[in-house]
Amino acid sequence: MKMKKTVCLLVATTLTGTMVGCSSSPKEAAPSAAKTQNNQNPYLASGKPLKLTVHMGTKDSGVFKNDWPIFVKAAEMTNVSLEGTLPNTVSDFSETFSIVMASGKLPDIMQALSRDFLQFGQEGAFLSLNDLIDKNAPNLKKFLADNPDVRSAASDDKGRIWFIPFIADGEAEKGWFIRKDWLDKLGLKEPKTVDDLHNVLTAFVNKDPNGNNKKDEVGFFHRNTTIGIEGLMALWNGYPSYRAFDNKVVFGPLEKEYGVAMENMAKWYKEGLIDKEIFTRGSKARDVLLANNVGGLTHDFFASTGNYNEQLGSKIPGFGFDPMLPPADVNGKVKEPSKRDRAKNYGWGISHSNPDPVATIKYFDFWFSEEGRRMANFGIEGDTFTKVNGKPIFTDKVLKSDKAPIDVIRKTGAQSNFGFQQDYSFEEQWTPPLAKDGIDMYKEKKVYMDRYPILKFTMEEQKKIEKIFPKVDTYIAETRQQWILGAKPVDHAAFVKELEKLDVRRLVEINQAAYDRYVAEMKK
Protein backbone atom coordinates (compact mmCIF):
# COMPACT_ATOMS: atom_id res chain seq x y z
CA MET A 1 0.00 0.00 0.00
CA LYS A 2 1.21 3.45 -0.90
CA MET A 3 1.00 5.91 1.97
CA LYS A 4 0.18 9.52 1.24
CA LYS A 5 2.13 12.23 2.96
CA THR A 6 -0.95 13.45 4.83
CA VAL A 7 -1.33 10.01 6.33
CA CYS A 8 2.37 9.99 7.19
CA LEU A 9 2.01 13.25 9.07
CA LEU A 10 -0.87 11.84 11.05
CA VAL A 11 1.14 8.74 11.94
CA ALA A 12 4.10 10.91 12.88
CA THR A 13 2.11 12.50 15.67
CA THR A 14 1.86 9.16 17.44
CA LEU A 15 5.46 7.97 17.04
CA THR A 16 7.35 6.18 19.78
CA GLY A 17 10.17 3.85 19.24
CA THR A 18 13.70 2.55 19.10
CA MET A 19 15.58 -0.55 18.34
CA VAL A 20 15.98 -3.74 20.17
CA GLY A 21 18.42 -6.54 20.52
CA CYS A 22 17.59 -10.17 21.10
CA SER A 23 18.75 -12.74 23.57
CA SER A 24 15.82 -15.12 23.29
CA SER A 25 15.79 -18.14 21.03
CA PRO A 26 14.37 -17.91 17.49
CA LYS A 27 11.43 -19.99 18.56
CA GLU A 28 10.51 -17.70 21.41
CA ALA A 29 11.23 -14.53 19.46
CA ALA A 30 9.36 -15.36 16.24
CA PRO A 31 6.29 -13.21 15.47
CA SER A 32 3.04 -15.09 15.84
CA ALA A 33 1.80 -13.49 12.61
CA ALA A 34 4.76 -14.93 10.74
CA LYS A 35 4.11 -18.36 12.22
CA THR A 36 0.55 -18.17 10.97
CA GLN A 37 1.82 -17.36 7.49
CA ASN A 38 4.41 -20.11 7.45
CA ASN A 39 4.89 -22.59 10.27
CA GLN A 40 8.17 -23.71 8.74
CA ASN A 41 9.68 -20.25 8.60
CA PRO A 42 9.35 -18.08 11.72
CA TYR A 43 11.30 -15.26 10.04
CA LEU A 44 8.97 -14.69 7.08
CA ALA A 45 8.26 -10.95 6.80
CA SER A 46 6.28 -10.96 3.56
CA GLY A 47 3.93 -13.54 2.01
CA LYS A 48 5.41 -12.87 -1.42
CA PRO A 49 8.87 -11.72 -2.52
CA LEU A 50 9.30 -8.05 -1.71
CA LYS A 51 12.14 -5.84 -2.94
CA LEU A 52 12.82 -2.63 -1.01
CA THR A 53 15.23 0.11 -1.92
CA VAL A 54 17.72 1.19 0.74
CA HIS A 55 19.87 4.30 1.16
CA MET A 56 22.76 2.99 3.23
CA GLY A 57 26.46 3.69 3.53
CA THR A 58 29.02 4.77 6.11
CA LYS A 59 32.70 5.62 6.15
CA ASP A 60 33.44 2.41 8.09
CA SER A 61 31.58 -0.13 6.00
CA GLY A 62 31.19 1.65 2.67
CA VAL A 63 28.17 1.68 0.39
CA PHE A 64 25.54 -1.06 0.71
CA LYS A 65 26.10 -3.83 -1.82
CA ASN A 66 23.19 -5.93 -3.09
CA ASP A 67 25.27 -9.12 -3.01
CA TRP A 68 26.48 -8.86 0.58
CA PRO A 69 26.02 -12.47 1.73
CA ILE A 70 24.20 -11.81 5.01
CA PHE A 71 21.57 -9.73 3.23
CA VAL A 72 21.20 -12.35 0.50
CA LYS A 73 20.71 -14.99 3.22
CA ALA A 74 18.27 -12.70 5.07
CA ALA A 75 16.24 -12.36 1.86
CA GLU A 76 15.93 -16.15 1.65
CA MET A 77 14.69 -16.28 5.23
CA THR A 78 12.38 -13.24 5.27
CA ASN A 79 11.25 -12.96 1.63
CA VAL A 80 12.46 -9.33 1.70
CA SER A 81 15.44 -8.29 -0.40
CA LEU A 82 17.20 -4.94 -0.43
CA GLU A 83 18.46 -2.96 -3.38
CA GLY A 84 20.98 -0.23 -2.66
CA THR A 85 20.53 3.20 -4.21
CA LEU A 86 23.98 4.72 -3.64
CA PRO A 87 26.76 4.38 -6.26
CA ASN A 88 30.00 2.77 -5.10
CA THR A 89 31.88 6.00 -5.67
CA VAL A 90 30.09 7.90 -2.87
CA SER A 91 32.34 9.10 -0.05
CA ASP A 92 30.42 12.04 1.43
CA PHE A 93 27.37 10.38 2.95
CA SER A 94 26.13 13.58 4.56
CA GLU A 95 25.99 15.28 1.18
CA THR A 96 24.19 12.38 -0.51
CA PHE A 97 21.61 12.31 2.29
CA SER A 98 20.90 15.99 1.79
CA ILE A 99 20.54 15.51 -1.97
CA VAL A 100 18.10 12.63 -1.53
CA MET A 101 16.01 14.52 1.02
CA ALA A 102 15.87 17.57 -1.24
CA SER A 103 14.68 15.42 -4.15
CA GLY A 104 11.56 14.31 -2.28
CA LYS A 105 11.91 10.82 -3.76
CA LEU A 106 13.01 8.70 -0.84
CA PRO A 107 14.16 5.07 -0.92
CA ASP A 108 11.97 2.70 1.08
CA ILE A 109 14.55 2.39 3.88
CA MET A 110 16.84 5.24 4.88
CA GLN A 111 20.00 5.23 6.94
CA ALA A 112 20.62 8.55 8.68
CA LEU A 113 21.74 10.33 11.84
CA SER A 114 19.35 10.56 14.77
CA ARG A 115 19.03 14.33 14.38
CA ASP A 116 17.90 13.85 10.77
CA PHE A 117 15.31 11.26 11.72
CA LEU A 118 13.95 13.46 14.50
CA GLN A 119 13.76 16.52 12.25
CA PHE A 120 12.48 15.02 9.01
CA GLY A 121 10.30 12.45 10.76
CA GLN A 122 8.24 15.20 12.35
CA GLU A 123 8.03 16.87 8.94
CA GLY A 124 6.52 13.73 7.42
CA ALA A 125 9.47 12.13 5.64
CA PHE A 126 9.64 9.06 7.89
CA LEU A 127 7.11 6.88 9.65
CA SER A 128 6.89 6.64 13.40
CA LEU A 129 7.58 3.08 14.46
CA ASN A 130 5.77 2.68 17.79
CA ASP A 131 2.60 1.01 16.56
CA LEU A 132 4.48 -1.00 13.94
CA ILE A 133 6.84 -2.36 16.59
CA ASP A 134 4.12 -3.05 19.13
CA LYS A 135 2.04 -5.07 16.67
CA ASN A 136 4.64 -6.72 14.44
CA ALA A 137 8.12 -6.77 15.98
CA PRO A 138 8.27 -8.83 19.20
CA ASN A 139 12.07 -8.94 19.34
CA LEU A 140 12.37 -5.19 19.03
CA LYS A 141 9.50 -4.61 21.42
CA LYS A 142 11.14 -6.73 24.11
CA PHE A 143 14.55 -5.23 23.56
CA LEU A 144 13.26 -1.69 23.86
CA ALA A 145 11.29 -2.54 26.97
CA ASP A 146 14.41 -4.06 28.53
CA ASN A 147 16.68 -1.20 27.41
CA PRO A 148 14.96 2.14 28.08
CA ASP A 149 18.19 4.05 27.40
CA VAL A 150 18.23 2.75 23.84
CA ARG A 151 14.54 3.46 23.39
CA SER A 152 15.13 6.99 24.57
CA ALA A 153 18.01 7.49 22.13
CA ALA A 154 15.83 6.39 19.20
CA SER A 155 12.80 8.52 20.02
CA ASP A 156 11.92 12.19 20.12
CA ASP A 157 10.88 14.32 23.10
CA LYS A 158 7.31 13.04 22.73
CA GLY A 159 8.39 9.41 22.87
CA ARG A 160 7.90 8.72 19.17
CA ILE A 161 10.38 6.22 17.70
CA TRP A 162 11.73 7.23 14.31
CA PHE A 163 14.57 4.81 13.67
CA ILE A 164 16.32 1.63 14.80
CA PRO A 165 19.85 2.50 15.93
CA PHE A 166 23.09 0.62 15.64
CA ILE A 167 23.73 -0.67 19.18
CA ALA A 168 27.26 -1.28 20.42
CA ASP A 169 28.14 -3.91 23.00
CA GLY A 170 30.83 -3.98 25.65
CA GLU A 171 31.84 -1.34 28.18
CA ALA A 172 35.56 -0.98 27.56
CA GLU A 173 36.66 1.41 24.87
CA LYS A 174 39.98 3.18 25.47
CA GLY A 175 42.80 2.87 27.95
CA TRP A 176 46.41 3.90 28.63
CA PHE A 177 49.31 2.07 26.94
CA ILE A 178 52.96 2.59 27.90
CA ARG A 179 56.34 1.27 26.76
CA LYS A 180 56.94 -1.25 29.53
CA ASP A 181 60.36 -2.13 28.07
CA TRP A 182 61.41 1.52 28.36
CA LEU A 183 60.27 1.61 31.99
CA ASP A 184 62.35 -1.49 32.70
CA LYS A 185 65.40 -0.17 30.88
CA LEU A 186 65.31 3.12 32.84
CA GLY A 187 64.54 1.42 36.15
CA LEU A 188 61.17 3.16 36.46
CA LYS A 189 57.85 1.96 37.82
CA GLU A 190 54.49 2.33 36.13
CA PRO A 191 53.22 5.86 36.89
CA LYS A 192 50.47 5.94 39.51
CA THR A 193 49.99 9.71 39.87
CA VAL A 194 50.15 12.81 37.67
CA ASP A 195 53.60 13.64 39.09
CA ASP A 196 54.76 10.09 38.38
CA LEU A 197 53.57 10.41 34.81
CA HIS A 198 55.41 13.71 34.39
CA ASN A 199 58.62 12.13 35.67
CA VAL A 200 58.28 9.08 33.45
CA LEU A 201 57.66 11.12 30.31
CA THR A 202 60.59 13.38 31.20
CA ALA A 203 62.81 10.31 31.40
CA PHE A 204 61.42 8.91 28.16
CA VAL A 205 62.31 12.02 26.15
CA ASN A 206 65.66 12.72 27.80
CA LYS A 207 67.32 9.40 28.67
CA ASP A 208 67.40 7.62 25.30
CA PRO A 209 65.34 4.51 26.20
CA ASN A 210 65.38 3.30 22.58
CA GLY A 211 69.18 3.27 22.71
CA ASN A 212 69.94 4.91 19.37
CA ASN A 213 71.93 7.80 20.87
CA LYS A 214 69.43 10.30 19.49
CA LYS A 215 66.96 12.48 21.34
CA ASP A 216 64.08 11.36 19.12
CA GLU A 217 61.72 9.79 21.64
CA VAL A 218 58.15 11.13 21.80
CA GLY A 219 56.43 11.09 25.19
CA PHE A 220 52.64 11.26 24.83
CA PHE A 221 51.24 10.91 21.31
CA HIS A 222 47.89 10.28 19.67
CA ARG A 223 46.42 9.79 16.21
CA ASN A 224 43.33 11.91 16.96
CA THR A 225 44.00 15.16 18.79
CA THR A 226 40.54 15.74 20.27
CA ILE A 227 40.09 12.16 21.44
CA GLY A 228 43.70 11.87 22.54
CA ILE A 229 43.83 14.85 24.85
CA GLU A 230 40.62 13.82 26.64
CA GLY A 231 42.62 11.30 28.66
CA LEU A 232 45.27 13.85 29.59
CA MET A 233 42.72 16.53 30.48
CA ALA A 234 40.98 14.20 32.92
CA LEU A 235 44.15 14.08 35.03
CA TRP A 236 43.34 17.66 36.06
CA ASN A 237 39.55 17.07 35.99
CA GLY A 238 39.15 18.95 32.74
CA TYR A 239 36.68 17.68 30.12
CA PRO A 240 36.25 18.70 26.47
CA SER A 241 32.46 18.68 26.41
CA TYR A 242 29.36 17.96 28.52
CA ARG A 243 29.31 15.90 31.69
CA ALA A 244 26.67 15.38 34.36
CA PHE A 245 27.55 15.25 38.05
CA ASP A 246 24.77 14.70 40.61
CA ASN A 247 22.23 15.46 37.87
CA LYS A 248 23.82 18.83 37.13
CA VAL A 249 25.01 19.35 33.55
CA VAL A 250 28.36 21.08 33.17
CA PHE A 251 30.14 22.13 30.00
CA GLY A 252 33.78 21.28 30.56
CA PRO A 253 35.38 24.32 28.89
CA LEU A 254 33.51 26.67 31.23
CA GLU A 255 34.91 25.05 34.37
CA LYS A 256 38.06 26.32 36.08
CA GLU A 257 39.56 22.81 35.93
CA TYR A 258 39.62 23.13 32.15
CA GLY A 259 41.91 26.12 32.44
CA VAL A 260 44.15 24.23 34.89
CA ALA A 261 44.34 21.30 32.48
CA MET A 262 45.27 23.58 29.60
CA GLU A 263 47.98 25.30 31.64
CA ASN A 264 49.58 21.98 32.53
CA MET A 265 49.29 20.54 29.04
CA ALA A 266 50.90 23.69 27.60
CA LYS A 267 53.70 23.26 30.15
CA TRP A 268 54.19 19.60 29.23
CA TYR A 269 54.19 20.46 25.54
CA LYS A 270 56.83 23.14 26.08
CA GLU A 271 58.93 20.60 27.98
CA GLY A 272 58.71 18.21 25.03
CA LEU A 273 56.61 15.61 26.86
CA ILE A 274 53.77 15.81 24.32
CA ASP A 275 54.29 15.07 20.63
CA LYS A 276 55.36 18.27 18.88
CA GLU A 277 53.15 17.21 15.95
CA ILE A 278 50.11 16.27 18.05
CA PHE A 279 47.87 18.54 15.93
CA THR A 280 49.30 17.63 12.54
CA ARG A 281 50.64 14.07 12.57
CA GLY A 282 47.26 12.54 11.83
CA SER A 283 45.71 9.10 11.89
CA LYS A 284 48.96 7.21 11.21
CA ALA A 285 50.72 8.61 14.28
CA ARG A 286 50.43 5.36 16.22
CA ASP A 287 51.70 3.25 13.33
CA VAL A 288 54.61 5.52 12.49
CA LEU A 289 55.88 6.35 15.98
CA LEU A 290 55.69 2.80 17.31
CA ALA A 291 57.21 1.23 14.18
CA ASN A 292 60.09 3.71 14.42
CA ASN A 293 60.55 2.81 18.09
CA VAL A 294 60.08 6.40 19.29
CA GLY A 295 56.55 6.48 20.80
CA GLY A 296 56.23 6.14 24.56
CA LEU A 297 52.64 6.62 25.78
CA THR A 298 49.14 6.91 24.35
CA HIS A 299 45.48 6.69 25.35
CA ASP A 300 43.63 4.70 22.69
CA PHE A 301 41.34 1.78 21.87
CA PHE A 302 42.22 -1.46 23.64
CA ALA A 303 41.73 -3.96 20.81
CA SER A 304 43.67 -2.15 18.10
CA THR A 305 46.43 -0.78 20.34
CA GLY A 306 46.98 -4.18 21.92
CA ASN A 307 47.96 -5.60 18.54
CA TYR A 308 51.24 -3.72 18.29
CA ASN A 309 53.17 -6.15 20.49
CA GLU A 310 52.41 -8.92 18.02
CA GLN A 311 53.12 -6.71 15.01
CA LEU A 312 56.40 -5.23 16.24
CA GLY A 313 57.71 -7.75 18.74
CA SER A 314 59.86 -9.51 16.14
CA LYS A 315 61.11 -6.24 14.64
CA ILE A 316 62.02 -4.32 17.79
CA PRO A 317 63.87 -6.44 20.38
CA GLY A 318 62.03 -6.48 23.71
CA PHE A 319 59.22 -4.26 22.43
CA GLY A 320 56.43 -4.02 25.03
CA PHE A 321 53.51 -1.62 24.66
CA ASP A 322 51.38 -2.62 27.62
CA PRO A 323 48.09 -1.39 29.10
CA MET A 324 48.16 0.33 32.47
CA LEU A 325 45.55 1.80 34.79
CA PRO A 326 44.97 5.55 34.48
CA PRO A 327 47.25 7.53 36.78
CA ALA A 328 45.29 8.99 39.69
CA ASP A 329 44.12 12.54 38.97
CA VAL A 330 45.25 15.55 41.03
CA ASN A 331 42.60 14.65 43.61
CA GLY A 332 43.84 11.08 43.91
CA LYS A 333 41.01 9.43 41.97
CA VAL A 334 41.71 6.76 39.37
CA LYS A 335 39.20 7.16 36.54
CA GLU A 336 38.72 6.58 32.84
CA PRO A 337 36.57 9.18 31.03
CA SER A 338 35.89 7.05 27.96
CA LYS A 339 33.16 4.44 27.95
CA ARG A 340 31.54 2.87 24.93
CA ASP A 341 28.19 4.34 23.88
CA ARG A 342 25.46 1.76 23.47
CA ALA A 343 22.95 3.33 21.12
CA LYS A 344 24.79 5.16 18.39
CA ASN A 345 23.43 8.33 16.86
CA TYR A 346 22.62 6.62 13.56
CA GLY A 347 20.55 3.72 12.27
CA TRP A 348 17.81 3.04 9.73
CA GLY A 349 14.15 4.01 9.45
CA ILE A 350 11.14 3.66 7.16
CA SER A 351 10.34 6.40 4.64
CA HIS A 352 6.77 7.68 4.22
CA SER A 353 6.54 6.22 0.69
CA ASN A 354 7.54 2.68 1.73
CA PRO A 355 5.11 0.25 0.01
CA ASP A 356 4.89 -2.19 2.94
CA PRO A 357 5.80 -0.78 6.39
CA VAL A 358 4.57 -3.93 8.16
CA ALA A 359 6.87 -6.23 6.18
CA THR A 360 9.70 -3.74 6.65
CA ILE A 361 9.40 -3.61 10.44
CA LYS A 362 9.25 -7.43 10.47
CA TYR A 363 12.44 -7.39 8.43
CA PHE A 364 14.04 -5.02 10.94
CA ASP A 365 12.84 -7.35 13.69
CA PHE A 366 14.59 -10.29 12.05
CA TRP A 367 17.96 -8.69 12.81
CA PHE A 368 17.06 -8.81 16.51
CA SER A 369 16.23 -12.50 16.45
CA GLU A 370 18.94 -14.89 17.59
CA GLU A 371 19.72 -15.97 14.03
CA GLY A 372 19.62 -12.45 12.61
CA ARG A 373 21.81 -10.98 15.32
CA ARG A 374 24.36 -13.77 14.83
CA MET A 375 24.55 -13.07 11.10
CA ALA A 376 24.81 -9.32 11.65
CA ASN A 377 27.77 -9.86 13.98
CA PHE A 378 29.63 -12.84 12.53
CA GLY A 379 28.63 -13.22 8.88
CA ILE A 380 27.84 -16.55 7.26
CA GLU A 381 28.10 -19.87 9.08
CA GLY A 382 30.62 -22.18 7.42
CA ASP A 383 32.38 -19.24 5.80
CA THR A 384 33.37 -16.63 8.37
CA PHE A 385 32.29 -18.56 11.47
CA THR A 386 31.39 -21.98 12.80
CA LYS A 387 29.54 -22.95 15.95
CA VAL A 388 31.47 -24.44 18.84
CA ASN A 389 29.32 -25.51 21.79
CA GLY A 390 26.58 -23.33 20.34
CA LYS A 391 28.75 -20.21 20.16
CA PRO A 392 29.90 -18.55 16.92
CA ILE A 393 33.66 -18.79 16.47
CA PHE A 394 35.45 -17.06 13.60
CA THR A 395 37.20 -19.23 11.03
CA ASP A 396 40.80 -18.91 9.90
CA LYS A 397 39.49 -16.89 6.95
CA VAL A 398 38.85 -14.10 9.44
CA LEU A 399 41.47 -14.62 12.12
CA LYS A 400 44.42 -15.52 9.88
CA SER A 401 43.82 -13.11 7.05
CA ASP A 402 46.40 -10.50 6.13
CA LYS A 403 43.58 -7.98 6.51
CA ALA A 404 42.03 -6.74 9.74
CA PRO A 405 39.31 -9.16 10.96
CA ILE A 406 36.67 -6.42 10.84
CA ASP A 407 37.43 -5.79 7.16
CA VAL A 408 37.00 -9.47 6.33
CA ILE A 409 33.70 -9.64 8.20
CA ARG A 410 32.37 -6.53 6.50
CA LYS A 411 32.83 -8.20 3.13
CA THR A 412 29.78 -10.27 4.10
CA GLY A 413 27.79 -7.19 5.15
CA ALA A 414 28.18 -7.98 8.85
CA GLN A 415 29.14 -5.12 11.19
CA SER A 416 28.01 -2.64 8.54
CA ASN A 417 26.46 -0.16 10.97
CA PHE A 418 22.78 -0.75 10.24
CA GLY A 419 20.13 -1.22 12.92
CA PHE A 420 21.21 -4.24 14.97
CA GLN A 421 22.71 -5.10 18.35
CA GLN A 422 26.38 -5.98 18.48
CA ASP A 423 27.70 -9.00 20.36
CA TYR A 424 30.98 -8.07 22.05
CA SER A 425 32.33 -11.58 21.57
CA PHE A 426 32.86 -10.73 17.89
CA GLU A 427 35.56 -8.22 18.89
CA GLU A 428 36.81 -10.25 21.82
CA GLN A 429 37.89 -13.08 19.52
CA TRP A 430 40.62 -11.02 17.89
CA THR A 431 41.48 -8.86 20.88
CA PRO A 432 45.03 -9.83 21.94
CA PRO A 433 45.37 -11.43 25.39
CA LEU A 434 47.34 -8.40 26.57
CA ALA A 435 44.50 -6.05 25.65
CA LYS A 436 41.98 -8.40 27.28
CA ASP A 437 44.00 -8.23 30.47
CA GLY A 438 43.84 -4.45 30.28
CA ILE A 439 40.09 -4.47 29.75
CA ASP A 440 39.62 -6.86 32.67
CA MET A 441 41.82 -4.66 34.84
CA TYR A 442 39.75 -1.56 34.06
CA LYS A 443 36.52 -3.45 34.72
CA GLU A 444 37.78 -4.96 37.97
CA LYS A 445 38.90 -1.60 39.31
CA LYS A 446 35.63 0.03 38.14
CA VAL A 447 37.41 3.07 36.78
CA TYR A 448 34.89 4.00 34.08
CA MET A 449 33.05 7.28 34.45
CA ASP A 450 29.39 7.42 33.46
CA ARG A 451 28.82 8.47 29.89
CA TYR A 452 26.90 11.62 29.15
CA PRO A 453 23.63 10.25 27.76
CA ILE A 454 22.23 10.76 24.29
CA LEU A 455 19.69 13.52 24.82
CA LYS A 456 16.58 14.45 22.87
CA PHE A 457 15.88 18.04 22.02
CA THR A 458 12.72 19.78 20.94
CA MET A 459 12.70 21.29 17.46
CA GLU A 460 13.14 24.74 18.96
CA GLU A 461 16.06 23.56 21.11
CA GLN A 462 17.71 21.83 18.16
CA LYS A 463 17.52 24.98 16.06
CA LYS A 464 19.16 26.95 18.87
CA ILE A 465 21.94 24.38 19.18
CA GLU A 466 22.58 24.40 15.44
CA LYS A 467 22.82 28.19 15.53
CA ILE A 468 25.10 28.48 18.57
CA PHE A 469 27.26 25.36 18.76
CA PRO A 470 29.32 25.58 15.53
CA LYS A 471 30.76 28.97 16.55
CA VAL A 472 31.40 27.74 20.10
CA ASP A 473 33.07 24.57 18.89
CA THR A 474 35.31 26.38 16.43
CA TYR A 475 36.42 28.92 19.03
CA ILE A 476 37.21 26.20 21.57
CA ALA A 477 39.22 24.10 19.08
CA GLU A 478 41.23 27.07 17.84
CA THR A 479 41.96 28.43 21.32
CA ARG A 480 42.87 25.02 22.73
CA GLN A 481 45.43 24.51 19.99
CA GLN A 482 46.92 27.97 20.48
CA TRP A 483 47.23 27.38 24.23
CA ILE A 484 48.86 23.98 24.00
CA LEU A 485 51.28 25.06 21.28
CA GLY A 486 52.20 28.13 23.31
CA ALA A 487 50.98 30.56 20.64
CA LYS A 488 49.09 32.47 23.33
CA PRO A 489 49.05 32.30 27.13
CA VAL A 490 46.25 30.44 28.85
CA ASP A 491 43.66 32.94 30.07
CA HIS A 492 40.66 30.95 31.10
CA ALA A 493 38.68 33.90 32.46
CA ALA A 494 38.87 35.75 29.13
CA PHE A 495 38.09 32.47 27.34
CA VAL A 496 34.89 32.02 29.34
CA LYS A 497 33.80 35.60 28.66
CA GLU A 498 34.21 35.03 24.95
CA LEU A 499 32.22 31.80 25.12
CA GLU A 500 29.47 33.64 26.98
CA LYS A 501 29.34 36.20 24.18
CA LEU A 502 28.71 33.28 21.86
CA ASP A 503 25.72 32.32 24.06
CA VAL A 504 27.28 29.13 25.45
CA ARG A 505 25.21 29.41 28.66
CA ARG A 506 22.11 28.89 26.57
CA LEU A 507 23.56 25.60 25.35
CA VAL A 508 24.06 24.49 28.95
CA GLU A 509 20.46 25.44 29.81
CA ILE A 510 19.14 23.47 26.85
CA ASN A 511 21.21 20.44 27.80
CA GLN A 512 20.09 20.65 31.43
CA ALA A 513 16.43 20.71 30.40
CA ALA A 514 16.94 17.74 28.09
CA TYR A 515 18.92 15.89 30.74
CA ASP A 516 16.14 16.44 33.30
CA ARG A 517 13.66 14.95 30.83
CA TYR A 518 16.00 12.00 30.28
CA VAL A 519 16.28 11.31 34.03
CA ALA A 520 12.50 11.47 34.40
CA GLU A 521 12.07 9.11 31.44
CA MET A 522 14.49 6.56 32.91
CA LYS A 523 12.47 6.53 36.16
CA LYS A 524 9.24 5.53 34.41
UniProtKB/TrEMBL annotation:
The entry's keywords: Cell membrane, Lipoprotein, Membrane, Palmitate, Signal
Gene3D superfamilies: Periplasmic binding protein-like II (3.40.190.10)
SUPFAM superfamilies in the record: Periplasmic binding protein-like II
Stretch forming the signal peptide: 1-29
Pfam families noted in UniProt: SBP_bac_1
InterPro entries in the record: Bact_solute-bd_prot1, SBP
Domain of life: Bacteria
Protein's name in the database: Extracellular solute-binding protein
Biological source species: Paenibacillus foliorum
Taxon lineage: Bacteria, Bacillati, Bacillota, Bacilli, Bacillales
